[in-house]
Amino acid sequence: MSGKGSVMVGLTRVQEEFLKILESFMHGKEYHFPEAFEEIEELYQMAGIHKMTAAVYEQIRNDVLLGRSEYAGLAGAFKNYTMRDVMMQMQRTDGFLRIYQKICETGVRPLVVKGIICRNLYEKSDYRVSGDEDILVRKEDFALCDEILVAEGFQREEPDTEHLPQEIPYINPQNGVYIEMHFDLFAEESGAYGHLNREFGDVFDTCISEEIQGQTVWTLSPTMHLFYLICHSLKHFLHGGFGIRQVCDMVMMAEHYGADIDWEYIYGRLQELRMEGFWNGLAEIGRKYLGFSFEKAHYPVFLQKEHVNCDHLLLDLLDSGIFGDSTMERKHSSNITLAAAESGKKDTVASVKASLFPGKAYMEKGYPWIKKCPWLLPVAWGMRIVGYLKRKRKSSKEEPGGVEIGMSRVELLREYGIID
Fold first, then answer.
1. Given this model, what pLDDT does residue 263 score?
2. Does residue 333 contact residue 240 with C-beta atoms inside 8 Å?
3. Residue 8 lies in a domain
4. Does 331 lie in the same domain as 190?
5. Gap between the Cα atoms of 231 and 185, Å rounded
6. Domain assignment of residue 3, yes or no
7. Do residues 268 and 228 share a domain?
8. 52: Cβ–Cβ under 8 A, 6 or more apart, which residues?
9. Which residues in the chain land under pLDDT 50?
């Protein structure tokens, strides 16, 4: 997919510096603010939305700008937030590795995806925080893994062992370790991306091990892990969006594994799945803003020529926050983009209907009583619409609502070739 001559979209000064700071963190470089930079509070807020506060503070803490008296309060908040984040991350990492080792001692080898594997790619891994750890478990190994986790103080809802869900979350209230045990990498029932599970059917056969803090951790092969990160980002893109941190992880993984990545395989699968334009946009963001080294990644020449205009994609992910949850309106917009992805084309009537009258599973998140009283789903729809109208009246008239955001993001799906 080659680039088309669309209009360039400019970044704000804060967005530009935010990206430069992240690039310096990723590649171990020094960073200094440009002269007359004053938007420290906006930078702090942006770092928080993208869960990169610790990484940003680590890069700017010694800059003379942060030492100025007028920024003393904000600098203190930056520092305190970072210290708390890093200490909690160290505790969670240690707790996860200990419980993971106990599981592996039984002969079971859950595959760890994202999380600690991605953090380990960074020189200062504890500054790239993550709230949970994802493990992929064979269904036949569930009982044993569950027994160990519960015995170690992890809490979870009582699962239906006859029909295991796609994932089961576990939380340890003592050390804050949060684990999502997956039996499939994607929700099988999703018409927009459930089919992606077929791409990862043999990952247990091709898995590799990594050494992290002296512990052996099993994970996906480099090719399949990078491919998974791309697919996982698309899943969030079809919902409310995803943040810049996921692009950072892809760049770091590509550069770290380099020659071990089969780019032709990945790109061939992306073409089959209508995702090559999406990836080309991400790669262009990496090249232009995050220091993506084609040489380190052994990125093939034929892909280096696939330039696309990444501006709209970049602005969307900067606005979305870490998992598209920067605003409630953006969260609600996911029903529109998912409907478009399921049908493979833009359908305004279907999209608006999906936004106003989402399915029972989605509505249960905000109205849990629907589980016991499913016949009251229409009542919940009415309450949701009334709530939306109230928020619109209180918000600025210039601020887009969920429908406007959703329809705008459907155009993004079209721009990058995901739908017709």
1. 98
2. yes
3. no
4. no
5. 10
6. no
7. yes
8. 22, 128, 244, 245
9. 1-8, 346-349, 351, 399
Give the list of residues 6+ apart from residue 314 with CB closer than 8 angstroms, or none.
Answer: 11, 285, 289
pTM: 0.84
Task: Examine the domain organization and report whether 411 and 272 are in the same domain.
Answer: no
Cα–Cα distance, 70 to 346 (Å, whole number): 50
The verdict on 279 and 361 lying in the same domain is no
Which residues constitute the domain of residue 347?
Answer: 327-420
pLDDT of 390-400, one tens digit each? 555 555 555 45
Q: What is the pLDDT of residue 400?
A: 53
Please tell me whether residues 285 and 370 are part of one structural domain.
no
CA of residue 257 relative to chain centroid, distance: 20
